[in-house]
Amino acid sequence: MGFRFKATHVVLAMLCVMYFITYIDRVNIGTAASEIQKELHLSNTQLGLVFSAFAYPYLLFQVIGGWVGDRFGPRHTLFWCGMLWAAATIMTGFVYSLPALFAARFALGFGEGATFPTATRAMQYWTPATSRGFAQGLTHAFARLGNAITPPMVALLIVWFTWRGSFVALGLVSLLWGIAWVWYFRNEPRDHSAITDAELATLPPRPTGTRPRVPWGPLLKRMWPVTLTYFCYGWSLWLYLNWLPLFFKNGFNLDLKNSALFASGVFFAGVIGDSIGGVISDRLFKRTGSVRFARLTVVVTGFAGALASLLPILFVHDMTVVALCLSSGFFFAEITIGPMWSVPMDIAPKYSGTASGIMNTGSALAAIVSPLVAGFVIDATGNWYLPFLMSMGLLLLGLCTAFLMRPERPFEEDDRPLALGKAVAAE
Fold first, then answer.
1. What pTM, to 2 d.p., does this model score?
2. Three-state secondary structure string covering the chain
3. Rounded to an integer, what distance in angstroms lies between the CA atom of residue 24 and that of residue 150?
């Protein structure tokens, strides 16, 4: 059987497609925003409210969805998530008021809230431990590829079908993915008809016995530095995803097509960052044997590089220079993704879905606050650069809080010093 037909690789490919589709469905509104804003007569503050609507249930379902993924398995959890976010995307094409648009985006957040934590749960048992950074980096690279393709693709769909038709078309694609996933995937690799003994030998052993109950208090205590660090990353991410097309359109008086192309160019830099960040982290882990060094080296470099990249846009407003700085900033921010999403698996392998959900609440909270603050600041000042100045402050904070993460200490339910000592010795 050829390399590309191995069951483990097919599952990873399907997860990559899921990340790709989910990000198209969540950021398509950024490209369509100018048309929606004009038709529904929305201010930038109201538009910021619409951008944030996705994030309220998305925040709630990070932990709940991670628990559901741990409890019921990724197969059916991701299927029903896919059905819900597909329906919400299609519904967006039929709204005619601000409340209806808010409701459609709110429903999208319900559908996508559990996807990434549950996907992490799937990768926990379908990916070798030494390839976690690669798998997380690759899947998130496809998410950023979705970001990059969305602006020109949605602009083209708007020309062909209007902005309403673009949402309907994208929602139908999501329906197809959900059907393919539930048909092919199995929660337990050894239950899959196409899995080989050689593949099973590379995968981590599945815990035996009854399903463990989540020790919420100790787990939250271990994960809060990871969550705070990811919030700092998420602030910049959601500023880019929601406002970048409008930033180029209004800041440089570009039309829809050209603003979409500039935004797409910036997002492509993130594809590269996601692709190499996890690979570098895995290689550092294999070479040094230190999971802390492997994860933190890449994360800290990413925050520092993103901060340094954005600084020039405060002083130089040439469109080419600004685009290059934003691209570099997004590249460095995205190299943190592979190691960051590996940290919950490093810390709490038995509760990886729940732990990654706790971490992703940081980004979900940023998805609420960042677009709201940006829209208000732009309306109040008319300055499209001030939101990026605020982003720089959060990047500096994230650089500092990254050192509080302890991926080298495997989580024990009661966090007893003796148990930790044994775990560290085993590491």
1. 0.73
2. CCHHHCHHHHHHHHHHHHHHHHHHHHHHHHHHHHHHHHHHCCCHHHHHHHHHHCHHHHHHHHHHHHHHHHHHCHHHHHHHHHHHHHHHHHHHCCCCCHHHHHHHHHHHHHHHHCHHHHHHHHHHHHCCHHHHHHHHHHHHHHHHHHHHHHHHHHHHHHHHHHHHHHHHHHHHHHHHHHHHHHHHCCCCHHHCCCCCHHHHHHCCCCCCCCCCCCCHHHHHHHHHHHHHHHHHHHHHHHHHHHHHHHHHHHHCCCCHHHHHHHHHHHHHHHHHHHHHHHHHHHHHHHHHCCHHHHHHHHHHHHHHHHHHHHHHHHCCCCHHHHHHHHHHHHHHHHCCHHHHHHHHHHHCHHHHHHHHHHHHHHHHHHHHHHHHHHHHHHHHHCCCCHHHHHHHHHHHHHHHHHHHCCCCCCCCCCCCHHHHHHHHHHC
3. 6
**Backbone torsions φ then ψ of 266, nearest 5 degrees:** -65, -45
pLDDT in tens, 132-158: 777 777 887 788 788 788 888 888 888
**Digit-coded pLDDT (tens) for 282-323:** 889 889 888 899 999 999 999 999 999 999 988 888 888 888
d(CA 122, CA 19): 13
The amino acid that residue 274 corresponds to is D
Which one, of 205, 154, 178, lies nearest residue 28 by Cα?
154
In Å, how far are 48, 213, 375, 407 from 340, measured between CA atoms?
Answer: 27, 24, 28, 10
Both structure tokens of 412? 């024990």
Topology adopted by domain 3-194+215-426: Growth Hormone; Chain: A; (1.20.1250)
Alpha-carbon span 243 to 29, nearest angstrom: 10
Angle at 18 between CA 14 and CA 21, to 5 degrees: 135
Q: Provide the residue ranges of all domains of the chain, joining segments of one domain with +.
A: 3-194+215-426
C-alpha–C-alpha distance, residues 319 and 104, integer Å: 34
Q: How far is CA 101 from CA 54, 113, 146, 156, in A?
A: 10, 18, 22, 22
**Contact status, residue 156 vs residue 82, Cβ threshold 8 Å:** no
Average pLDDT of 408-419?
A: 56
Residue whose entry in the numeric block shows the structure tokens 């706790």 = 358
Dihedral sign of CA atoms 145, 148, 151, 157 in order: negative
> Which residue, among 359, 338, 337, has the nearest Cα to 348 in the 3D structure?
359
Q: By CB neighbour count within 10 A (0-12 exposed, 13-18 middle, 19+ buried), where does 18 fall? A: buried
Whole-angstrom distance, CA of residue 126 vs CA of residue 189:
7
